[in-house]
Amino acid sequence: MDKDVSGPKVVVGVDGSPSSYAALRWAVRYAGLVGGAVDAVAVWELPGLYGWSAPAVDMDVDEDETRQKMRQELADVLGEHAADTVRTDVVHGNAADVLLRASEGADVLVVGSRGRGGFARALLGSVSQHVSQHANCPVVIVRAEPS
After folding, report:
1. Which residues have C-beta within 8 Å of that of residue 131, sequence separation ≥ 6?
2. Distance CA 130, CA 124 (A)
3. Which single residue of 5, 35, 87, 126 has CA 20 to 30 Å from 105?
4. Is-contact 125 114, C-beta < 8 A?
5. Pairing mode, if any, of strands 139-142 and 37-44?
6. Pairing mode, if any, of strands 108-112 and 139-142?
7. Measured between alpha carbons, how far is residue 24 from residues 48, 53, 88, 90, 131 in Å?
């Protein structure tokens, strides 16, 4: 995400869940309407890593795998042409914190209503709830499209 943005900046969180794919499609449509650019952010972390004295795995492997998977998911969800217009960033850390940092200076932050974890019956996931309460820009929360 090192390119300069002259128009509105739209940040979207992507985690592989159906609602994050819906959020990605919404963000691309919105950016097209307002002449903006989309920054898709994927966050990865190793469960249980915190508190260990040292990581037991090669952390670069997970980041590389996440980058490759994200590019493929963007192409699958948006098509090759549209996927090429989206800037991507893969960041290690806490999803809510990373998205809040990425959205600094953004016109809007777009997230799915629920990610891959948590309780299936919950209306909002913990990340979408946290960013909706703490972001310094408008937040759009998108539900998964019915299958």
Report:
1. 13, 96, 99, 100, 103, 109, 111, 139
2. 10
3. 126
4. yes
5. unpaired
6. parallel
7. 28, 37, 12, 15, 16
Q: What are phi and psi of 109, to 5 degrees?
A: -115, 130
Q: How many residues in total does the chain contain?
A: 147
Tokens of residue 60, six digits: 């670069």
Q: Is 79 left (phi over 0), alpha (psi -120 to 50) or beta?
A: left
Point out which residues pair with 88 in neighbouring strands: 40
pTM: 0.83
Q: How far apart are CA 79 and CA 68, in angstroms?
A: 15
What token pair was written down for 122?
């919950």
Tokens describing residue 126: 């913990």
Whole-angstrom distance, CA of residue 127 vs CA of residue 129:
5
d(CA 105, CA 103): 6
- The pair of structure tokens assigned to 105 is 């200076």
Instruction: Give me the residue label for tokens 């943005």.
Output: 5
CB 41, CB 89: distance < 8 Å: yes
* Model pLDDT for residues 68-103, shown as the tens digit of each residue: 888 899 999 999 999 999 999 999 899 999 999 999
